[in-house]
Specification:
The complex is a heterodimer of chains A (115) and B (115). With 115 residues, chain A is mainly β. Chain A contains no helices and twelve strands. In chain A, strands 2, 5, 6, 10, 11 and 12 form a six-stranded mixed β-sheet that branches. A four-stranded antiparallel β-sheet of chain A has the order 3-9-8-7, with no helix packed on it. The relative contact order of chain A is 0.34. The chains are: A mainly beta (115), B mainly beta (115).
Chain lengths: 115, 115
Amino acid sequence: AQTVTQSQPEMSVQEAETVTLSCTYDTSENNYYLFWYKQPPSRQMILVIRQEAYKQQNATENRFSVNFQKAAKSFSLKISDSQLGDTAMYFCAFMKRDSWGKLQFGAGTQVVVTP
Amino acid sequence: ETGVTQSPTHLIKTRGQQVTLRCSSQSGHNTVSWYQQALGQGPQFIFQYYREEENGRGNFPPRFSGLQFPNYSSELNVNALELDDSALYLCASSLGLAMNTGELFFGEGSRLTVL
């Protein structure tokens, strides 16, 4: 069984600054995907960024980037130039390659962006 | 393109009652997954439906059951409700297994309160 751990319940960051969210996971699988999902107060989960485990290059989506360390089983998310609209709950998630749609989520990190 | 819609948005039931939650998947998506998100926690996988067949189940008792219809909409049924069933129930749709990138498209959820 896989476990996903997010050790930071809440992070606060000022507008335009950078914040890094940590995520570690435990698995015996070699082929898998990792995700960061965002859940704003509206409750609708939105995919932020996705990483395939077989790719060594870290994924980047505009102001969002990850630091994927496969050996260490670590998958952190960096939010650069933080904006007020980034305020949300952020969930790290794991999915085995052959388990489409069956994600294992962490407990989440609440990010609060202040003016 | 129509996104994932869920109904009802909020509902209150008493212990022992039964509830049905509904989900319309995003246009073109034939896979629906259901998740339970308890307060302050990450979503937990309940089960998934692909082309009207159950395609995997998480660690939930049989009183949690589901259906998928020919138009790929889906229902989640919970019998003999317990207080611990109080949660946000999320529906997520995705492309069929062969084309799945692992990205899920979530609805805004149904908030169930069991008294």
